[in-house]
Amino acid sequence: MTELFSAQASARRKGPSEGVQEVFNYINALEYGLKRLKQLPISLRLTREIHERLMKGARGQSLSPGEFRRAQNFIGPPGCKVENATYVPPPVPQMKDALDRFEKYLHERRRMLPPLVRLSLIHYQFEAIHPFWDGNGRVGRLLITLLLCSEGLLSQPLLYLSAYFERNRREYYRLLLDVSQSGNWTDWIRFFLDGVSEESRDAVARSNQLLALRQEYRERLQAQKFPGRTLELMELLFREPAITVSSARAHLKVTTRAAQQNVDKLLREGIVKEVTGRQRYRVFVAQKIIQIVEADTAPKQTRASGPGRS
């Protein structure tokens, strides 16, 4: 997270690591999707547009970004052949038919199932169709957030099931595969709903921790009679946990010297820490904020795990 926020803050952002680039792309694709929802419902067209942005400059960028696959793919251990694959998605003609049915289900007005149960079915179906050469998992997880927002279940994109899926990675894949092989929808739906509950509680816990930290910082700065601009810069950290003197200057609309003075006040208070070790283009990070964001505060699962797919 420090690398991510530092790269976002730095004006000299060059060649971020593969993982950071993927997260940049995920954020950009999510923001793009939320804006597009104002003109376009979630559809195959929007899915392709999101995929193109997810893959730009990241893992799988050479595998037809923004286009559905035109040949058979499969999932299995590295180097395996299709006959030894763990899972083989539908061939292209059947894939096209499945995507058509998938889109019609997205737009279906007569909905007999509770919204979250319906969303669990949509997620499984997209992953089972596996319409792209690469990036299907990233698109599928992002679609969950977009659907939660588009259907009015969330006012802001504050629920991410990716962490839950990753913590329970083997079971996630096992249950998806179990639906395909034996039609075991019950366990998959229960797993998905447990994830929504767990990550919702996690989001509330993190939000409360961030609010408490914000109040602590505000009271500390006010007690020492720091100027209003220093408090304003502190508030900025809860939107942008890494800053530079240049970004502080632009936000506060002050001179470079005044911006540096306000950053130095936060530095002396231990609210930010310089992380580059450079004399120029320095980046200051609010490490306590980042610790709250990236800490694994959700309760651990005690499920039995089984063989998964790669």
Kindly describe this structure.
With 310 residues, this protein is mainly α. It folds into 2 domains: 2-157, Fic-like fold (Orthogonal Bundle), CATH 1.10.3290; 204-294, Orthogonal Bundle (Arc Repressor Mutant, subunit A), CATH 1.10.10.10. It contains 13 helices and 3 strands. The chain has helices at 2-9, 18-36, 44-55, 92-107, 115-129, 136-150, 162-167, 169-182, 185-223, 228-237, 245-252, 256-268, 287-294, and strands at residues 242-243, 273-274, 284-285. A 3-stranded antiparallel sheet has the order 1-3-2. Residues 298-310 have low confidence and may be disordered.
Secondary structure elements and pairings:
Layout: H1 2-9, H2 18-36, H3 44-55, H4 92-107, H5 115-129, H6 136-150, H7 162-167, H8 169-182, H9 185-223, H10 228-237, E1 242-243, H11 245-252, H12 256-268, E2 273-274, E3 284-285, H13 287-294
Antiparallel strand pairs: 1-3, 2-3
Helix pairs in contact: 2-3, 2-6, 3-6, 4-5, 5-6, 5-9, 8-9, 9-10, 9-13, 10-12, 11-12
Give the name of the CATH superfamily of the largest domain. Answer: Fido-like domain
CATH architecture name of the largest domain: Orthogonal Bundle
Number of helices: 13
Count of all domains: 2
Name the poorly predicted regions. 298-310
Fraction of helical residues:
55-70%
Given the helix and strand composition, which structural class is it? Answer: mainly alpha
What order do the SSEs take from the amino end to the carboxyl end, as H and E? HHHHHHHHHHEHHEEH
Instruction: Provide mean pLDDT, rounded.
Output: 89
Using the alpha-carbon principal axes, give the shape: elongated
Number of strands: 3
